[in-house]
Amino acid sequence: MAAIAHKKRPAKSQSGPAPKKVKKAYVATNEKLDMSIARKAKRSVPVTVTSVPNDSENTDDEGDLDDAEDDADLDGEDNDAMQVDSREGKTSARESHITQKALQQSRKAAKPHSDLISEAKRVWALARSQTISAKERRKHITELMNVVRGKVKSIVFKHDASRIIQTLVKYGGKTEREEICEELKGSYADAAKNRYAKFLLLKLIRLLPSHRANILSSFHGQILSHSRLLLHREASSVLADAFELYANSSERAGMVKEFYGKEVALFYQKKEVDNEKAGKGLIGVLETFGSDKEKKARILAAVKENLASIFNNPDKGSVRHAIVHCATWEYLDVLARMQDHGDEDDVKEAEKLRRDLFESCTELLPEMVHTRDGSRVVREFLARGSAKDRKIILKAVKPHIERMCLDDEAQMVLFTAMDVTDDTKLLQKSVISIITTPETLDTLVKSPQGRRAIFYLLVPRSRRHFTIVQIRALGDTDNARDGVRIGIKQGSEEGATTGEGTSKKSPVVRQEEIRRGSSEALLKWIEERGADLVREAAESLVVGEIMLYAEGDKSPASQTLLRTLATPYPASSATLPSSSVHPIDLPHASRLYKTLLQGGHFNHSLKSVEISERWDPTAFAVDFVKIVGGDDGQVVKDICTKGERNGSFVVAELCGALVGTEDVSSDKVAAKEAREKLNGWLSTSEMRKGIEEGEKDGARGTKVLLEAIGRL
Predict the structure, then answer these.
(1) Can you tell me the distance from the alpha carbon of 335 to that of 342, in angstroms, rounded to the nearest whole number?
(2) In this structure, are residues 609 and 598 in contact, taking their beta carbons and an 8 Å threshold?
(3) Bias regions of kind Acidic residues — which residues (predicted)?
(4) pTM score of the predicted model
(5) What is the pLDDT of residue 25?
């Protein structure tokens, strides 16, 4: 007899049936919170970090949505003591659980402020609910403040109690925030060093601007001495957030002044300093001491020593912070002025100090490029360094090239490297070959920062793609590269070329070599991906620049772009399965083909087209007639007479590209044949009638097209 297969029903959960999913009923009035909560800024992320670090700048309430009961079980009890001894085997599981619970409760009761924290947790669970009205939340916040009033400093260093106070700061008003801030007065540095209280301190800095100066001033004397907050694993992130996100220029200057040494701190306490000089940072401090070279040397030595303490402890993470980068740049800026304005002894001393600093932080440079000052530091090392120094820097940043291209500040380092490095073969190997891989290009072309990295290979510092601020910033290193010193003669403000620049090669020659080295890979990428790129507005800009300014054989890439247009018009799902829109109906694509046919971009200031020397519009026009027009020219006719007639301007430029070019074209026969063929397609009475009908329907470009046909 065959065995009967029994099928068991799935066992029901011991906790009962699954609860129904209930949508959170948010109350509109509940969202009337401080706008600064919603707009919380985040620090810039180093290019060496592949994922966002889970530190203070990315943490708000540290699990604000967890159950209050879960928090009650996280007070750090000795878990081993609560485990049931399996060897006894005399008590049931239920009895063991009761025993554990009783032991846990007794330990909690024995801890300081246990009743206070328990009561606070009860009210906290109500106050942080996401489904209550603003009025009800206000009631619970007031009750919670009454529970913890006077005890904030005693409980804030515990992980669960700290989160309770954070909720008070987040949802409370200015009164509650100021009251909590006053209770913590004198303990700000201790809070910054605490794993849990640091989040509360950051909330106070962010949400209580009126007390921000007092909190930050309490750190003075402890950033690099005494408590050494900047080298503390927890406190350093508090200082970093405060400096980069919340402090004003005066507060930042006060924090950076800690790097200048104790002598400066005492001097500034005893003497009133001109605000203008105080705003100049280290340079202003040195100007305050006048011509006393010994004092200046001691201050520079103090800065050097403090920076060395940071660079010698990279495991603390401080080297990534903007405050360190700011101090480093101020130090390098002083050395640069000594080299440019000083006498022979100053030049030698500045070069020695710069060399010592470079050797102490060479391996850490990739950790600095993501901030403005950090990027400027690395660019200064590139500009004033030797060929060997540049090779070391490029080797250090090579693993992070793609992420640097996507960062506004980090990419400036790559641009400066292209501006000052004479060894273009080294650039090709370390930078350009990485940027121009198909995978990297596919990533870069999707963001403005990435597109700028591609543009810099072909059209560096072009006003079409780079702002005036960016161009000026890149020009800051030109004097060091070219050997220009300001004010060599006494009282002179004019620069004079000394011939002792750090780069020997002409900038024009260097740019040509970089363009030549990157062109082949870029054109190959267009050949493979051009059909997809022209359909996207931003990507089509990159396509246009590559076609106009790259060097090499552009025929395969041109044919790819033209085959995209060769599909029947108007488009249908049968002719273009991936998209029902013909490329000629996309404004950016139509503009791209028009630009390529006219030979360059239109300059609105000069009211004329800037012809590119590296592009042959006539050859492109010949290929256009051959590939898009085919034997009968049907697609060319259709884009002028059917659908939206968006091809009128493109075909008008096609006619213009073939008019009068037989004498200048490299292939005179092909240009003449293409012109005659195009003329035969467009000059018929039927074709003219179709174009004129479009003019009656309001189609754009019909007059321009008729005039262009008349010139064929």
Answers:
(1) 10
(2) yes
(3) 57-80
(4) 0.85
(5) 41
